[in-house]
Amino acid sequence: MRNSEIGFRVTHNDGTTDSMIALDCLKRLFQFQLPEMPKDYISRLVYDPSCLSITIVKKTGGFISGITIRQLQARHVAQIVFCAVSSAEQVKGYGAALMDHLKHHIKATSSVTHLLVYADNYYVGFFQKQVFTKSVSLDQSVSMECVKGYEGVTLMQYAIGTGLEGRQYDL
What keywords is this UniProt entry annotated with (predicted)? Predict the structure, then answer.
């Protein structure tokens, strides 16, 4: 798929019809792609007004991928709570492009200096390719404020701005 056929959309729960429709589609994508996550837990975070989501959508309609973050502005940290690419669109670079877009968006629009993620152990390699590290330098009290991890995950960190120069994705 070419860039002219897709678009990035930044959304959050601002109560508008457009946002609620987008968040509903994103919620369904996460529920399908993350079947082990409780559906009500996904809904609660996707619709949380303090969370921000970025999606890649087809111009003809339909969601390709999405990511939802929870910002801890007082700590200048954001946590990635969900990240998924639809099954039919995996291994095409959409996950990397979405992550890159998220990093640029955060750098341009907020005071967030670090991203944290509890990466499923199966996806640690993906996050390492996105310049996340297992060496978390932030104070432990910061990670304690994040959505709690669970068995089979690794806490990882990204310093905003690291590795952003010259990154482009031909989608």
Answer: Nucleus
